[in-house]
Automatic annotation (TrEMBL):
A single GO molecular function term of this UniProt record: metal ion binding
Swiss-Prot/TrEMBL catalytic activity: D-ribulose 5-phosphate = D-xylulose 5-phosphate
Binding site for a divalent metal cation: 31, 33, 64, 173
Record's protein name: Ribulose-phosphate 3-epimerase
Pfam families documented for this protein: Ribul_P_3_epim
Gene: rpe
Length: 223
């Protein structure tokens, strides 16, 4: 699969979201971080803002739910029109049911793992998902340094996906920038979330293009 870049609007200007998403028009996704101040120590936005964003951008919206009780809330994001909805393994009580509900509402279903959560216990769930998100920072804030310690897990996740012959995308999120994206691509990631690396750049559109070019080169070398 071609490399995909998903700018995270967590680092955008929340008072100008429509302009901020328009500034990355050739990105593959808009990544939206939903935080509830319980699962993570930060509060961002919820369904009403996602609904407004869906009207403001032609790009597919990727909702990353860092919330407690995703079983209750996640299907609503899919029903609203988010093209991808990701729940955290650590927060879900009935992940299989919830992932199936996301899919039956017409969205891609994603499962996220915190840096300290091993991938192996979720090997059998890979058949239920369209994307695995391996967090490369502790979730909650943009602009944190990339955790190299997670790289072996990215490789093991890629091997598990390959071994089962599944078409599951492997997303990385947190500290992804020009210094770290190649290591992620070499380890097997193919969807790259970047918040501060895109929105702190003078030219966010150019930042998206150059991250994509870098990841594409690195993933070919690693292939
Ligand atoms: C962090 C969020 C990320 C965040 C990444 O919990 O899930 O999506 O926006 O920001 P950067 O790319 O700045 O690390
Ligand atoms: Zn995120």
């Amino acid at each position: 699969m071609a490399v995909q870049i998903a700018p995270s609007i967590l680092s955008a200007d929340f008072a100008r979201l429509a302009d901020e998403v328009a500034a990355v028009a050739d990105a593959d996704w808009i990544h939206v971080d939903v935080m509830d101040n319980h699962f993570v120590p930060n509060l961002t936005l919820g369904l009403p803002v996602v609904e407004a964003l869906l009207k403001a951008t032609p790009l597919p919206v990727d909702c990353h739910l860092m919330i407690e009780d995703p079983d209750r809330w996640a299907p609503g994001y899919a029903e609203a029109g988010a093209a991808s909805v990701t729940i955290h393994a650590e927060a879900a009580s009935a992940p299989i049911r919830t992932l199936r509900e996301i899919r039956s509402a017409g969205a891609r279903a994603g499962l996220a793992l915190n840096p300290g959560t091993a991938v192996e216990p979720y090997a059998d769930l890979l058949a239920e998902i369209d994307m695995l998100l391996v967090m490369t920072v502790e979730p909650g804030f943009g602009g944190q340094p990339f955790l190299d310690v997670v790289l072996p897990k990215i490789s093991r996740a890629r091997d598990l996906i390959k071994g089962r012959d599944l078409d599951v995308w492997l997303q990385v999120d947190g500290g992804v920038n020009t210094e770290t994206i190649e290591r992620c691509a070499e380890a097997g990631a193919d969807v790259f979330v970047a918040g501060s690396a895109v929105y702190s750049a003078d030219d966010p559109a150019e930042a998206v293009r150059s991250l994509r070019a870098q990841a594409t080169r690195a993933s070919r070398q690693g292939a």
